[in-house]
Amino acid sequence: MSNKVGDNMQQNLSDLIKQIDVMKTKKVQIDQEIYAEQQQLMKTEQELQILTNRLNELEEFLVKKQNEKSELNNTIVQTEMARNKIAESYKNYLNFLQQQKIHHLSSQQ
Hints:
Elements: H1 2-108
C-alpha cells in the first residue's frame, strides 16, 4: 500500500509540475501579448498626437481664413456702400447740371 501511495504521490507531483509548466507557458504568452499591446498603445498614442497636432493646425487655419473672409466681406460691404454714394452723388450732380442747363436756356429767351 505504501508503494501505491508513493506512486499516487509521484503522479500528483508530476501532474503538478505539468500544470506549473502550462501556467508558465501561459504566463510567457500573456507577457508577449501585453508587450504587443503596449507597443500598439505607444504607436496609437503617437498617431493620436500627430492627428491632434494636425487638428490644431486645421482649426487655426480655419479661424485665420474665417477672419480673412469676414474682413473681405466688410471691405466688400463698405466698398459697395461707397460706390452707391458715388453713384447717388453723380446722379445728383447730373440732375443739378440738367437744372442749370434748363435755367440757363430759359433765362436766354
